Amino acid sequence: MQFTFQDPEILSYLGLPKDYDPLPSAFPVEFLKKHLHQLPPHITQRFSLITTPKQRTVITVIRNRRLKFTESRPRCLSFTAARNTWPALWQGRERGGQEEAKEEQEWVARSFLDGAEQQVGMLGKLLGEFEEEREAERVRVIRRMQPNDEFIPEEEDSDSEEENRAPEIQEVGESPEEAKTLFERRIKERFIYGLLEGADYDSVDWDEGLDVEDKNAEERWFDDEDE
Q1: Sign (positive/negative) of CA torsion 92, 93, 95, 98?
Q2: Helix/strand/coil for 81
Q3: In this model, does residue 227 exceed pLDDT 90?
Q4: Are 184 and 82 in contact (CB under 8 A)?
Q5: How far apart are CA 121 and CA 133, in angstroms?
Q6: CA angle, residues 184, 157, 57, in degrees to nearest 5
């Protein structure tokens, strides 16, 4: 379904005058801070047309929805999926494509049960090596094209610059397991702060089912600036 953004329809739904301030189209973030909970998803989704995920980060409700989503351990943010989707963020040293190579070998083993075991094993190994090299080349291309951007969240209306800065992660020598944990944390934080390009933010930002009822749970990561 294709959405259009029209101020009169949104204001009419809330019973607000046409000259209401802040006007949704002019100050969408400020408008959402005041009225997000009063609007149904089929209307809030339209704000994706005029705001970016990073801009919406300053809205506490949306940040908390993203946090709740990451805590559900979605497959799209799992280590393997995230490493393949955002390889430029992965600083590990193992060769890319190993998971894909393993899947190729398992597919051959399942699909060619009538063949000789030795031939199946050789074919699976060959296809696995091809898939590993294809994935490794894809990762190399993405890393060359994607700059190493700084991890900085959207600025909020605050006099303290430190309050507007996302948590920093120190790069030190880690074990493979520590590197994996660090990467998963980085992906989680970048998602919450609207910095994961290509992530499906719309399905999370406008999902009322992700609202946190426990006030203490909301404040585990964030201070509520919308007093």
Answers
A1: negative
A2: helix
A3: no
A4: yes
A5: 18
A6: 30
